[in-house]
Amino acid sequence: MRAALEEAKKAQERDEVPIGAVIADRKKEKIFSASGNRTIELSDPTAHAEILAIREVCKKQGVQRIPGLALYVTLEPCAMCAAAVSFARLEKVTFAATDPKGGGVLHGGKFFEQPTCHHRPEISHGILSEECAALLSNFFKSKRT
What we know:
This protein has 145 residues and is an alpha/beta fold. Helix content is 35%, strand content 20%. Helix 2 (49-61) packs parallel to helix 3 (79-88). The chain is globular and about 45 Å long. The N and C termini lie far apart (30 Å). The model has no long low-confidence stretch (mean pLDDT 97).
């Protein structure tokens, strides 16, 4: 999660919403990809940290599914990112802060609980939640002043 937090900080330096994601092999403790939000930079509303991290691993490995790997992300994934996780067949999703307004895992549409969901990863949350939530909160406060 620390690596994901570093990616979130890099996103903030680019004036993007500070969300970071890392895809890793939990057993080998190896990071396969790391990314932060780039929606503004790429003029792409789908360029969320999770999507970019998934794309990078799939491209490097020349595959469309990456089972056995885990996603670590600083904020609860939205429904779009949850769907990408399902289609990529990630084994586990760990997120720091919850997102009652835009989340799609514990909040909102609860993507993985839908009968149309093809793959449900193991879910955990709360690691570094206060630090990740504070980064986001401070970012948005700075935008309002």
